[in-house]
Amino acid sequence: MSRGKLDHSRSVNIPPLPKTKDQLKEKNRKLRKELDTLRRQYKDNVYSVIERLKGEYDETKHDLTPSYEKLKHLIKEATSEEVLEGCRVPEHKHSVQNKGIDRSFNHNSTSCMEVHLRDAVAARYDQRKGTAGLLQSCREFSGRGDNHAVQQRRREVTDMHKAEIADENEELKHHIQCYDSKFLRAHNRLSKLQQEYAASKQYLPPKRYRLLKEMIETVVEDSKLKPD
User: Fold this and answer.
1) Predicted pLDDT of residue 194
2) What is the mean pLDDT of residues 96-121?
3) Most exposed among 134, 176, 187, 192, judged by the fewest C-beta atoms under 10 Å?
């Protein structure tokens, strides 16, 4: 090769330019908007169903002879196709579905989503902590841990240093994906309720009545479904 001719056979990895503080602040604004939208969608489309199921089920406890037909109605209402569709992880910019997943996979598959959500959220949180780190982080996110930095912002972004804003942006991305986990968990719970309801038809009313109550209680007592 002549001295004056460049060798283009070797690729050069050029690191991305560092973000300016204004860029980080704008990213923070967009992430907070995305998290707020996702939180609202979860409360309106998913958790409202759980709350309604719990409220109406609790009312039956005051009846001397709770209605067998009432329990059947509650389960059918909470597991309609419209409800289950509303429990699917919605499309959004920082969805776990956008994080390097093989596009040939069926993203409507529960098992596929479980694997990729666990891996993507755990990786974003801290690869060294693995699944334990993910569980601890999501406990903190839902208010059961000691870290409330994201839910209760101690200072305005304008008062933060660049590194602090960058750290908070990463936390926001993680918390957004924790909501993906809540959507998926709710979909799994209600889908299983639908399946168990269908399977219970083989039993006579006395035994089926007890099973219906247990099915409902499993869903409404799941504290991990609560929004932050």
Assistant:
1) 97
2) 50
3) 192
How far does CA 23 lie from the centroid of its chain?
27
- Where are the domains positioned within the chain? 21-92+152-225
Average pLDDT over residues 161-176: 91
Predicted structure pTM score: 0.73
Q: Which three-class secondary structure string do you get for the chain? A: CCCCCCCCCCCCCCCCCCCCHHHHHHHHHHHHHHHHHHHHHHHHHHHHHHHHHHHHHHHHCCCCCCCHHHHHHHHHHHCCHHHHHHCCCCCCCCCHHHCCCCCCCCCCCHHHHHHHHHHHHHHHHHCCCHHHHHHHHHHHHCCCCCCCCCCCCCCCHHHCCHHHHHHHHHHHHHHHHHHHHHHHHHHHHHHHHHHHHHHHHHCCHHHHHHHHHHHHHHHHCCHHHCCC
Q: What is the mean pLDDT of residues 93-122?
A: 53
Interatomic CA distance for residues 62 and 217, integer angstroms: 16
